[in-house]
Amino acid sequence: MEDNNLDNRLLTVDDLHTSFFTPSGEVKAVNGVCYYVDRGEVVAVVGESGCGKSVTQLSVMKLVQSPPGKITKGHVWFEGRDLLTLKDKEMRQVRGAEISMVFQEPLTSLNPVLKVGTQISEVIMTHSRCSKKEAWEKGTHALEEVGIPDPARRMHNYPFEMSGGMRQRVMIAIAVACDSKLIIADEPTTALDVTTQAQVMELLMSLVQKRGISLIIVTHNLGLVTRYADRIYVMYAGKVVESGTARDIVTYPKHPYTVGLLQSVPKLDERKDTDLIPIQGAPPSLLDLPKTCSFLPRCPYANELCGKLCPPDLREVGDNGHFSACHLDIGEVEE
Amino acid sequence: MSNMINAGVSLLEVKGLKMYFPVRKGVPGKSEACVKAVDGISFNIPAGETFGLVGESGCGKTTVGKCVLRIIRPTDGTVLYNGTDITGMSDRRFSKFRRDLQLIFQDPYGSLDPRQSVSSILREALVSGNKKFSSVEIKERIAELLALVGLDPDIGGRFPHEMSGGQRQRLGIARALACEPKLIVCDEPVSALDVSIQAQIINLFKELQKKLGLTYLFIAHDLAVVRHIADKIGVMYLGHLVEMIDSEELFTNPVHPYTRALLSAVPITSYDVERVRQREVLQGEVPSPINAPSGCPFHPRCKYATGVCSEAVPELCDCGGGHFAACHHPLAGC
Predict the structure, then answer these.
(1) B239: left (phi over 0), alpha (psi -120 to 50) or beta
(2) For residue B249, which residues of chain A lie inside 8 Å, CB to CB?
(3) What Cα–Cα distance (Å) separates residue B157 from each residue in A16, A304, B146, B151, B152?
(4) pLDDT reading at B137 higher than 80
(5) Domain count within chain A
(6) What number is the average pLDDT over the span B293-304?
(7) Which regions of chain A are under pLDDT 50?
C-alpha cells in the first residue's frame, strides 16, 4: 500500500473477485477491486449500472446471494481481520454493529408489516445486551437524532405511513443505532427528490462528522460525490479504473472513462448551447470481457497499442494518491 | 387541418389549467376532498421551442402533460393547440389532432409491449397514422425511423427485452415520431438512464428538434437536464407554477425562493465551485395536495415568508424579459 498511515486504516479491500455463475456463463461482476477506507473518511464509489459497484459492497458485507454468486478471490481486511474468512455467526456480529448498510430503496429494505420501532430495537437487541424496553428507548433516541419529529409516536408507525425521506432517515437511524464504525450507503438518495436528497445527505454527513464514522457512498451521481466525498473510486466493468481525491478526479480526470462521464453530465452552471459529449456505445457484457482494456471499444483516445496490450493496471498518475488504469496519458489532451 | 402552423400563434397555449382529483372515502364513494394536482397553470410554447417543466414528485407536472394530451380532461382551463381549443372537442374531432401530439414515456421497459418485435411496434404506430402506406412503404419508413433515432436497421426483428435501456428509449422516440407529430410531450424521458446514455438521448432530442422542427414539452425533475434542453423553464410546486424563466437565466437570476432552494440542492460537478457554494437546505416536506396551505403554497417552508404569504395567493408577475415569478417577496438576482 502506498500510504504509511496504516493505523488509521479501517477497511482494506484487496484484489476482490466476485462472480455470478449463471446458465449462460460466469459473470465477473467484481474483477479484482482494491480500495481502502480510513477512519472518519468519506469515500465514494462511482459508476454506471452494472459496473459492479453495489456487488463490491455486498461482497464486503458477505451478502452476495450464493448460489449463483460467489466471492472467488481476495481479502477484505477490517480492523485486522479478514472478513471473508469469518464464519457466518461471526460475520453476523460484524454486520449492523461494526459495518452497517443503507440501501437505495427504503421501502423494500424495511419490513412492511413491522412497526419501525420494532425494526430498530431488533437491531439494537441483537448487538447489545439490553431489555426490550431499553432497546425501544435507544431506538426513540436514534430517531430523534436523525431529525424525525415526534420520535416517540413515530416509533409506532409502519413504513408505509412515512414519506420517502423519512424512511431513509429510519434506515440511517438503524445504521447509527449500534455505533457502527463504517456505514456503506448504496445509492442512498437516488429514490428521493432533490430537496429531500439534500436533507438526507446533510444529515448523513453531520452524523458521520460528529461520530467519526467512515462512510462509503455508492452512487452514479457525480455531483453528489463532488459535494461530499474525500476520495473517489471510479468503477467500470467490474474494475476500479481511477482513484484519487475528489478534487483530482473531478478537476483533473486522467482516465478516458472518467473524462467521458464528466463530459456527459449536464451542468447547471455551464452555457446551455455547449453540447453534451456522450460516451458512444454501451458498457461491455460482463459475460465475456475483452482481453484488452474493457473501455477500449468506447474510448475516443484509444490507439493501436491499446488493442495489443493486456488490460492496464492502476498506476500512479499524480500526487495525493491519484491512480488511473490507462495506457495513455490523456491529461493534457483535456479541455 | 392541423398540418399548417399558424404564424404568430404559439403552437401550444395552456390557460388557467386546473385538474382536481376527488378523493373518495367509504363504500358509497362520496367525494370528501380533492387533490388539487394542478391549480391554475398558464404557459405557451412557440413552435419549434422546448418548454421544460420541473418540480419534485407530486407537484403535478405529469398531470399537466396528460391534460395537454387529453389523456385526462382537466377540471377547468383550456389547452389551445395551434389556436384551436382541444379541451372541449369531441373525441372524433380530436382524433385528427391525436397524431400531432405524441408522448414519450419515462420507463422504456414498461411502455413497450414485450411480445411485439421492434418492427411490429413501429408498424402499428405507422398504420394508425395520418397516411396510408403500402407494405413496401412501411418497410422503408421503419428503416428510415430507425436510422433517424440512431438504431441499427437490423434491429427490426428484436424484442424489447433484447435491447439495452438506451436502445429502448430510442425505440420509444421512433414510435412517437412515426406519426410525424408536431408536439411531443416527453415525460421524464431520460431519468431511467445512466449518465453516459442519458447524454446520448439528450443530444438525440436536440438533433431531432433541429431536423424535424419539433416542439417539446419536456417534463423532468432534473434541473440540469431540463436546463440543457429547454428554451424556457417552468418551475412547479404543489400544482402551481411558481416561476417561469429563460433557461439561460435559471442559474444566474432565479427570484423565487423555491427555485433557489431547488438549485442549491442540485450538486454541481465542479469541485472548486461546489465546495464553496452556499447551500439552502429546505426544512420539512412538501405538504399534501389534499389540504394545501393557504396563500402561497410554499410559505410553510419559505424562510422569507411573512403574514401576507399565508393569506393571499401570489400572482405570476412579470419580472421583465419573459421572466415570471409568483412570489410576494421576490429575491433580487444573485
Answers:
(1) left
(2) none
(3) 40, 35, 12, 13, 11
(4) yes
(5) 1
(6) 88
(7) 1-3, 333-335
In B, residues 234-253, which contact A (CB 8 Å cutoff)?
A: 247-248, 250-251
Give percent of chain B with pLDDT exceeding 90: 36
Return the pLDDT at B1.
38
* Ranges of each domain in chain B: 12-100+181-325
Does residue A157 lie within any of the structural domains?
yes
Q: Is B164's pLDDT higher than 80?
A: yes
**Which residue of B62, B170, B193, B195 to mutate against A (max A Cβ within 10 Å)?**
B195
CATH number at residue A161: 3.40.50.300
pLDDT at A334: 44
Peptide bond into A67 cis (omega under 30): yes
Q: Could you give the ipTM of this predicted complex?
A: 0.81
Q: Do B203 and A279 touch (CB under 8 A)?
A: no
Q: Which residues neighbour A184 within 8 Å (Cβ) at sequence distance 6 or greater?
A: A57, A60, A61, A99, A100, A101, A102, A215, A216, A218
Residue B331 or B14, more confident: B14
Which residues constitute the domain of residue A126? 105-229
A77 found inside a domain: no
Q: State the number of CA atoms in the 13 A half-sphere of A275 facing the CB.
A: 10
What's residue B318's pLDDT? 86
Mean pLDDT of B101-105: 90
Of A197, A202, A266, the CB nearest to B224: A266
- CA distance to partner chain B, nearest, from residue A248 (Å): 9
Please report whether residue A125 resides in a domain: yes
| A221 in any annotated domain | yes
Report the alpha-carbon distance of residue B151 to residue B174 in Å, rounded. 9
- The CATH number corresponding to B12-100+181-325 among 1.10.10.60, 3.10.100.10, 3.40.50.300, 3.30.420.270 equals 3.40.50.300
Give the chain A residue whose CA is nearest to the CA of B282.
Answer: A195
Instruction: Tell me the per-residue pLDDT of A283-297, one tens digit each, with 9 for 90 and over.
Output: 888 888 888 888 888
